[in-house]
Amino acid sequence: MRISRRIESLPPYLFAQISRKIAEKKAKGEDIVNFGIGDPDIPTPPPIIDRLCKAAKDPANHRYPESEGLPELRQAIAVWYKKRFDIDLDPDKEVLPLIGAKEGIFHIAFCFIDYRDVALVPDPSYPVYSISTTLASGSPYYLPLTEENNFLPDLDAVPAYILKNAKLLWLNYPNNPTGAVADLDFFNRAVAFARRNNLAICHDGPYSEVTFDGYKPDSFMQAEGAKEIGVEFHSLSKTYNMTGWRIGMVVGNAVMIDALKRLKSNIDSGIPQAIQYAAIEALSGPQDCIQEHNAIYQRRRDLVIEVLNNIGLKAQTPKAGLYIWAKVPKGYSSVEFATDLLERVGVVVTPGTGYGKNGEGYIRLSLTIPDAALVKGLSKLSNWRDSRRRLKQGVDFT
Ligand SMILES: *Cc1c(COP(=O)(O)O)cnc(C)c1O
Description:
The protein has two domains: about 5-45 and about 290-390, Aspartate Aminotransferase, domain 1; about 45-285, Aspartate Aminotransferase, domain 2. It has helices at about 5-10, 15-25, 45-55, 70-85, 100-110, 130-135, 160-165, 185-195, 225-230, 255-265, 275-285, 290-310, 335-345, 370-380, 385-390; strands at about 35, 95-100, 120-125, 140-145, 165-170, 200-205, 230-235, 250, 325, 345-350, 350, 360-365.
């Protein structure tokens, strides 16, 4: 048999080397703390699970769901957006539930990108924006996110010959992996840019509720004219600790949503209905859990930043999201430093280059580690500098 070129051309698994080292260390019985995984460790709140269990017992939910989602769920999403962002959405035309945001983020490329079309993709970014572009036989054009530009793309720097073939612009704030945030002014400028250049915008906003120090992000959909040229992907994964249930949504421009709906009706047969009822409970029920979870993440954030500073690593304190984006010490590449941390002190972090070329010089640490493991991981991290010093003196005791 012969695997397609499409699959053969997928980039190699970047963490293969690190994964092998983790497996080796674990086999030797060594203790490892993993700051690499962005997946909430706190369970889904009980009322949401109760609703799921109840719905699972109803035979009406044992049959094929509708591809476009239960009307009650689309309504609940519209009401949530109205309450949270004061945005009006038509639940029939401007809302589409997804099997997790990732599913829709991948598939929407196939609604816009034909052979040789271009998608403007931030670098570093969530890898699905560029992979979906490539698999749809288009090309990503990377927009560097740097500390100097506050991790906001410089849209005016995109050359005209690129814009000629560009169909989509990807944005993601609060940002994974950099932890950066964007204000309404930036979103307004992005919409104006997209209109000038006949582009559609896909904004990915799953961290809008994971925020600290009282910060409340705006939705991209609040930008002037956003609904005429763009959509926003959102998810229940990070807001309600529901990554395992696979449910998210996309809202906004009706033409874009209709194209995705048409594509999806040929691929999947909707989201299991019991999970849709759980999502209705999450969006419509009491929202106190969000504050409670954010308090936990904020405490972890402060602990991680303190230890990073103590060992001489620079990192900005994020206002939102689940990650710390820290600079690696001079003399290391991202992968070298991540490997060094693992070998020397048994701590796993993600090298910034996993998210693109401009992630070089950074590592990402996730805040989704249970408190006890976090404390252990931080004490391991604190030992890194001492183990370095011993090495410099020519005696490596570790
Ligand atoms: C976690 C994450 C998603 C995926 O959300 P799901 O709904 O679980 O698929 C999408 N985009 C970004 C930037 C993420 O970090």
